[in-house]
Design a protein that fits this description.
alpha+beta
Length: about 200
């Protein structure tokens, strides 16, 4: 089971967004049969089986083992990932394009850049899985508390200068076997985390 998987296919995205199927995916963090799931979600086993077949068809759940119980074969299923992200590729005709309005101070432009990041990394993961290779990536995630808008603007200027210097130092247009890498740096207000259910 992957910690996170990217859904690139529109039909798979549609299947995953159904509330019952989304609940089944959450329940299938650990292997379970249709009978076990039916008791948990309060649905008939036949209905659960119907939804499981749809999820399996799109690669969102997988068969872990088959168990014989009398005359019945019980199929133990598990989600293929702990969580899923739907790629903008699933909405190909309307996926975000940062080139449409390149305003680096716009929250909507940042969202388009983030969408492109999800799309590109999803495609890289898919390609790497087929080639049985890893994707060379790196990410930083942190928080900074600014005392004022002026401090935030100064930080953005210094960050821009530092990244520009690093790119200038390491970028080699003439490297025959070199490979281009996209650098994305984003700063946005933090969103407060919701308290855990039951806390």
């Amino acid at each position: 089971m992957y910690p996170v998987a990217v859904i690139e296919d529109a039909a798979a995205a549609e299947v995953s967004l159904d509330p019952i199927r989304a609940r089944l995916l959450a329940e299938l963090a650990e292997p379970a049969s249709a009978t076990m799931l039916a008791a948990r979600v309060g649905l008939p086993r036949q209905k659960v089986n119907y939804h499981l077949r749809a999820l399996e068809k799109h690669g969102l759940v997988e068969l872990v083992e088959e168990r014989r119980k009398g005359n019945v074969t019980e199929r133990m299923m598990r989600a293929t990932a702990s969580s899923y992200v739907i790629s903008p590729t699933a909405l190909a005709a309307v996926q975000p394009d940062p080139a449409r309005s390149p305003d680096r101070l716009s929250a909507r432009w940042l969202l388009a850049v983030a969408g492109r990041l999800v799309r590109d990394v999803g495609l890289l993961i898919t390609g790497a899985a087929k080639a049985r290779q890893r994707v060379a990536t790196f990410a930083l995630d942190g928080e900074v508390r600014f005392a004022s808008a002026a401090d935030r603007a100064a930080f953005a200027e210094e960050l821009t200068a530092a990244v520009t210097t690093l790119v200038g130092k390491y970028h080699d247009e003439t490297a025959e076997k070199g490979r281009n890498h996209r650098v994305v740096v984003a700063v946005h207000p933090s969103v407060p985390e919701e308290p855990a259910r039951g806390a």
